[in-house]
Design goal:
D-Maltodextrin-Binding Protein, domain 2; five-stranded mixed β-sheet; 2 domains; 35% helix; alpha/beta
Length: 247
């Protein structure tokens, strides 16, 4: 069996994620001793012996929905979002004036085409507003997109609100950035298990583990609880066309 919690795992949260996994394993009574790190996320998500992992809503609805089983969704108590939901925040440099329309046609940094918060949500938001992107810069990670804007390699980017919360708390370059717009909330990053595995006992164990987790670790993870969002709510989120090209 393998388990992974990669989506918000960074040096400042790694120990708390390890504690969370030990608590989940203790509630379940089985599972791998340690979280898997450093592997391609698709290898983890599609592994036939996957016990628990966190993915993104876009991969879940477009490629994984018939290959994995939905377990539940962490609630990070994000401002303006229902429990278990999140949104994208558009970022620009603090010294670059204007709101979102002022950035239409300028260079946009995005982490990857299969990202709900980095590509799908901002692309849908821009289209609804009648705005378009200029040149595209694919960075491979939300933090890299934020750094690209801070350094001037891109003019604006979109990150998920929880990632931005962690960057604002831990990264010095965050001071060079500002929020210029927010998308509407959508279901957050879901927990999944292998196809055919009963999600009920896993969801119950994750919920109990979250409730019993040390408060300091809950604070580091911004974890308010675990909610059950139906798969249909993920599948009804709009899926825009992928980026035509990127630099």
């Amino acid at each position: 069996m393998i388990a992974a919690l990669p989506m918000y795992d960074r040096p400042e949260t790694a120990a708390a994620n390890d504690s969370f996994w030990r608590a989940i394993r203790g509630e379940l009574g089985y599972g791998p001793e340690a979280l898997t790190r450093g592997r391609d996320p698709w290898e983890i998500w599609e592994h036939p012996d996957l016990l628990l992992a966190q993915t993104c809503g876009y991969p879940f609805r477009t490629r994984l929905r018939d290959r994995v089983t939905l377990v539940g969704t962490p609630d990070y108590a994000l401002e303006g979002c229902p429990p278990g939901h999140y949104r994208s925040v558009f970022m620009a440099r603090r010294d670059d004036p204007g709101d979102l329309p002022a950035f239409a046609g300028r260079r946009f940094a995005f982490n990857e085409a299969l990202s709900q918060s980095g590509w799908a949500a901002p692309a849908h938001h821009m289209a609804e507003a009648g705005l378009g992107f200029g040149p595209l810069l694919r960075t491979g990670a939300h933090a890299a997109s934020a750094r690209a804007v801070a350094s001037g390699r891109a003019d604006f980017a979109a990150l998920d609100a929880q990632t931005w919360r962690l960057i604002a708390a831990h990264d010095d370059f965050a001071g060079a950035l500002r929020v210029i717009a927010r998308t509407r909330p959508t279901p957050g990053l879901p927990l999944i298990t292998a196809r055919g595995r009963d999600p009920g006992p896993i969801l119950a164990a994750v919920r109990r583990a979250a409730e019993r987790l040390d408060q300091a670790d809950r604070t580091r993870l911004c974890l308010a609880g675990i909610v059950a969002i139906p798969a249909a709510a993920y599948l009804e989120v709009p899926t825009p066309a992928p980026p035509e090209s990127d630099a």
